[in-house]
Amino acid sequence: MGLVVQKYGGSSVADADGIKRVAKRIVEAKKNGHQVVVVVSAMGDTTDELIDLASQVSPVASGREMDMLLTAGERISMSLLAMAVKALGHEAQSFTGSQAGVITDSVHNKARIIDVTPGRIQSSVDEGNIAIVAGFQGVSQDKKDITTLGRGGSDTTAVALAAALNAEVCEIYTDVDGVFTADPRVVKKARKIDWISFEDMLELASSGSKVLLHRCVEYARRYNIPIHVRSSFSGLQGTWVSNEPLGAKPVEQAIISGVAHDTSEAKITVVGVPDKPGEAATIFRAIADTGINIDMIVQNVSAAATGLTDISFTLPTSEGSRAIEALEKHRDTIGFDSLRYDDQIAKISLVGAGMKTNPGVTATFFEALSDAGVNIELISTSEIRISVVTREDDVAQAVRAVHSAFGLDSESDEAVVYGGTGR
User: Fold this and answer.
1) Residue 232 domain-assigned?
2) Range of the domain at 22
3) How far apart are CA 78 and CA 240, in angstroms?
4) Residue 223 covered by a domain
5) Looking at the DSSP assignment, which residues form a beta bridge with residue 312?
6) Which residues, including other chains, have CB under 8 Å from residue 265's CB and lie 6 or more apart?
7) pLDDT tens-digit series, residues 137-174
8) Residue 181 maps to which CATH number?
9) Which long-range contacts (CB under 8 A, 24 or more apart) does 241-244 make?
10) Is residue 202 pLDDT above 90, yes or no?
11) Residue 302: inside a domain, yes or no?
């Protein structure tokens, strides 16, 4: 049997009972003949609680010290889990991200992995140990400072280690039974997907699906590492994410894979922009120079009488104030009239590789939103995705309407969310 990398999220190790339950599952994989490497997140809401504590101590903490603080959560989890495994009669060794050889760039709070040199991990499992690694963290290549990878960083750690160790599979354990056609917290009749391609999963992840983060799926696709998303609270098969269904002949993909939503974005409208070459470039260069990622962009048709137009775009709400500040600095250069900021929006996305060869998908999507009384503010499309921006208050109703319109509702048991606060 080959090497397996398992990752357990915060809800799976939220308390002592959860840690002992996870330890039993890890030992079971070891007894089945696998070499086992485990990546673990901080317990429950530990990371959020540390962020809250830091904000009480200092409203503007340095990135370096925040990384030193936040990595403590995963170190607590890894050591407690190693103790629980040893209590079951198996040898385990815990490692921080830097000890595991996770090397990153120097950007604090959202570092990117440059390389993984897992020599100590490989030696540990070769000696018969279960290696337990703190997720979400690494060490910068130049300054040797501790860094964190941002939200979803533990998933990325797991996939990166799986690639470096030539693992058979990366198992992502969470508080739901797999990837669903919609968030089961919003759509109770959401249906579990048995297999989904990297391409569709990337679109769902980038559109707000929280089961897997975009960076994790992107890394897995690049190194062709199959991901098995499953629950640590049940023994059920989960969702396989890979190039093609494992152990089966390739099949034609479903027209629609799922519906995703995201309430973490805001919209900025630059009002009264001169409609001439170079204006949009200046606007988005100012945003890019601050390191902010833009999602959707829409430019209105310019008014003939004034020669002015409006440009709207969406971005993470957490980056809103920095974007406004950056644009205000370039007001004279750009020549716009004003800025409008709106953080009460939501994005709803329909994803499916089959939609590019099936006419009528777009019409059905917009008809469903219309019938639900949901107004659309922005529209963005790709070959396998349609995204719209609506009011945040309409998101649940919109997701349910679209999910039903495409026949995605399950006829059997409702989706189960086993744990987690959703924070």
Assistant:
1) yes
2) 3-248
3) 26
4) yes
5) 269, 298
6) 295, 314, 315, 316, 317, 345, 346, 347, 389
7) 999 999 999 999 987 899 999 999 999 999 999 999 98
8) 3.40.1160.10
9) 241/179, 241/195, 241/196, 241/197, 241/198, 241/201, 241/212, 241/217, 242/195, 242/197, 242/198, 243/197, 243/198, 244/197
10) yes
11) no
Whether 265 maps to a domain, the answer reads no
CA-nearest of 345, 341, 352 to 389 is 345
Which of 131-135, 188-192, 218-222, 352-356 is predicted least confidently? 352-356
- pLDDT tens profile 353-390: 888 888 889 999 999 999 999 999 999 998 899 999 99
Confidence label for 246 from pLDDT (cuts 50, 70 and 90): low
How is residue 217 written in tokens?
Answer: 């799926």
In the chain, how many domains are there? 1
In the block, tokens 């949009």 appear at 280
Kindly state the tokens that stand for 241.
């994410």
What is the tens place of the pLDDT at every residue in 298-354? 988 777 678 899 999 999 999 999 999 999 999 999 999 999 999 999 999 999 988
